[in-house]
Amino acid sequence: MSFIADQQTLEDLNLLGKYKQHSIFSLFNTVKTAGAEKLLMEMFRMPLTDPEAINRRSAIFRYFQSRQLPFPFSNEQFSAIDDYLSDSGGKYYLTVLLALGRKKLLGAVVRDEKYQNTRISLQQTIKLINDSKIFINELSNDNDHPFYDELLAAKKILNNPDLGELETWQNSGLSLMKMAKYEHLLKRKMQADLLLVIQTFYKLDLYISVANLAREKGFCYANAFPKEAGILKAAALRHPGIKRAVGNPVFFNHGNNMIFLTGANMAGKSTFMKALAINVYLAHMGFPVAADNMAFSVKDGIYTSINVPDNLNLGYSHFYAEVLRVKKVAEEVSSGKSLVVIFDELFKGTNVKDAYDATLAVTTAFSEYEECLFIISTHIIEAGEVLQERNNIQMLYLPTLMQNNIPAYTYQLQPGISGDRHGMMIIEKEGILELLR
């Protein structure tokens, strides 16, 4: 089963988008080749739900982070060889020789550039094959890592005796017959094997780039456990896209499956919830996470409700859009799925009395589903005073400190329910009432 994260969740967490400002994808997109970028996008779109597969991928990243390697090739080099090999050659050597002969004749008679372009592409391909052989021979000396089998397969292909002559081609030049021989070898006899090598190098680009980013950012790798373990714990968990972000501890299990979060506006509630959801998503990808350490049981997916818009075309008010979102999540939770659920300020689109009643009822109902993990934030602190009697709900808040009547924020979680009511103080500080007098 594939990991669930619907469009609303992807938008709330700003996960995807090559050109989207501050997206998590763009943070990790430090690869050099277009092929690696395509693989990166596939991994972002398809998080894993098998703990063994997750741990194997994270182990590969750990290995390359320990090696601290550069990826010594450019996108132009691999785009050229990819294009060259993807264009199938003739089935027989003689067919290739005749085709090249025609190109050469046309080049001499009507100044057609196809023969010269083929020659240049072949030279570029041979050089990259030789350089790749040197790189992978050095890299594959270490056999104690989970990517070794793929490296060994690529090494065997590149060290095929049929490719040996390519190492000395510059000494003898590229005659028409040599070009035909090499074209037939590369585009026909060994095409499938060499395309496999290219895919291995795209993976190398991705693993090396992401591992180097993890070392630079001080990220760690989460340990994945089977769903039945029912845990999620982390130290100094923080938002991966924020420089010098404040970290917080997190702990969930079956008997402690909900956080009821309070705090003033600007205290950091939304950022904390996004940080947790983003890191859970990255952990299911086997990617580095922004924490000092992290362990988690695999989940079926994530649902968030952070920036739910109204829908004027369908006649939905903001409140009704919120209700529909809660209904969608309730359907998924009640179907037996094991989910991480984030609700940022439930029912803020209605009056205080309805918001209180709805927050209390919905939070109580969701808390019964111990296979799921929830964070629910609200300004309705009165609901928290009732809910704190439930043993499986953690009451946490983000404090506001007043310094000379100016609010300051620690962004550090504290046990309990916030009593901060500084809204009017901030309004007065900004001089709004004086402007209106």
Automatic annotation (TrEMBL):
Pfam families named in the record: MutS_V
Record keywords, A-Z: ATP-binding, DNA-binding, Nucleotide-binding
SUPFAM superfamilies linked: DNA repair protein MutS, domain III, P-loop containing nucleoside triphosphate hydrolases
Residues covered by the DNA mismatch repair proteins mutS family domain: 256-437
Signal sequence extent: none
Presence of keyword rRNA-binding: no
GO biological process, alphabetically ordered: mismatch repair
GO MF annotation, one: ATP binding
Presence of the UniProt keyword ATP-binding in the record: yes
Matches recorded under PANTHER family: DNA MISMATCH REPAIR PROTEIN (PTHR11361:SF99), DNA MISMATCH REPAIR PROTEIN MUTS FAMILY MEMBER (PTHR11361)
Stated name of the protein: DNA mismatch repair protein
Organism from which the protein derives: Pararcticibacter amylolyticus
